[in-house]
Specification:
The chain is α+β, with helices and mostly antiparallel strands and about 80 residues long. It has one domain. About 15% of the residues lie in helices and about 30% in strands. The protein contains 2 helices and 3 strands. Strands 1-2-3 form a 3-stranded antiparallel beta sheet. Strand 2 and strand 3 form a beta hairpin. The longest helix has 7 residues. The radius of gyration is 16 Å and the shape is extended.
């Protein structure tokens, strides 16, 4: 996978997409040669969200997990170093 792009998004449309007033995001995308891509959203503003609960478990509603499967993890690591 490689970084496919980065952008900073904000404005009325982004606020409506995220349902967060004043949303300003840094969005980074990863793209493999085949298959789906992944976007990582970092909220630059607002910064007053609730902290992730310290006692969160994998069977809680707020839990998420992303698993990337590759045939050669070392080759991927070398290619992205």
């Amino acid at each position: 996978m490689k970084l496919a792009g980065e952008s900073e998004n904000y404005g009325t449309e982004q606020e409506h997409l995220n349902n967060v007033f004043g949303a300003r995001l840094q969005i980074s995308s990863l793209r493999a040669p085949v298959g789906p891509g992944i976007e990582f959203l970092e909220y630059l503003t607002p910064r007053d969200g609730r902290p992730f609960p310290a006692d969160a478990h994998s069977n809680d509603l707020l839990h998420w997990q992303t698993t990337l499967v590759v045939s050669d993890a070392e080759a991927v690591a070398r290619a992205n170093a």
